[in-house]
Amino acid sequence: MAGNREYNLRRLHSLLGVIPVGIFLIQHLVVNHFATRGAEAFNNAAHFMESLPFRYVLETFIIFLPLLFHAIYGLYIAFTAKNNVSKYGYFRNWMFLLQRISGVITLVFITWHVWETRVAAAFGAEVNFQMMENILSNPFMMGFYIIGVISTIFHFANGLWSFLVSWGITVSPRSQVIATYVTIGIFFALSYVGIRSLYAFV
């Protein structure tokens, strides 16, 4: 019974990392990429997202609660997992370890990013191009954001591979190899979008 419960929790954890959290990540990267077209384009895109009906309900039940469960249970997995890369240095063993490390980095980054933007907005600050420009004008913060963005995208892309396996979508070794190349491609494509967006603000 306990084994089935943990198995189902891990599957739910994997699912929420892709739907809706992963989808939100992609949407967030797309909105940020409007910064490459200038301040007005980004502000219009950000304003559109903020003007969605039932925004607080959507943010709570589609983003924050799934993300909270994924983060808390992810920490449990990270600190109870038995990593064996020192003994078995296979590619997937390293990906397993890096998934746990990137998860912790991503959690720190997202917490800080939410504090700087959403919490600040709750106290009257406007989330716009100038806010991000001010944040990223600090070289230390730019470095922190680059590491955070790359870590977040890696965690999503590598987690997508695990999701496909745990949900029985990629069962054969060949399909898992193909999924590996696809998810690596997703990582590089989204990283390009994310890093290009960061530099657009400065």
TrEMBL record:
Domain of life, source organism: Bacteria
Residues at which heme binds: 28, 70, 113, 155
InterPro entries: Cytochrome_b-558, SQR/QFR_C/D, Succ_DH_cyt_b558_Firmicute, SuccDH_FuR_B_TM-su
Keywords: Heme, Iron, Membrane, Metal-binding, Transmembrane, Transmembrane helix
Key word Isomerase present: no
Cellular component per GO, a single term: membrane
Ranges that cross the membrane: 12-34, 54-76, 97-115, 135-157, 178-199
Compartment annotation: Membrane
Record-linked CDD domains: SQR_TypeB_1_TM
Gene Ontology molecular functions: metal ion binding
Keyword Metal-binding part of the UniProt annotation: yes
Protein's name in the database: Succinate dehydrogenase
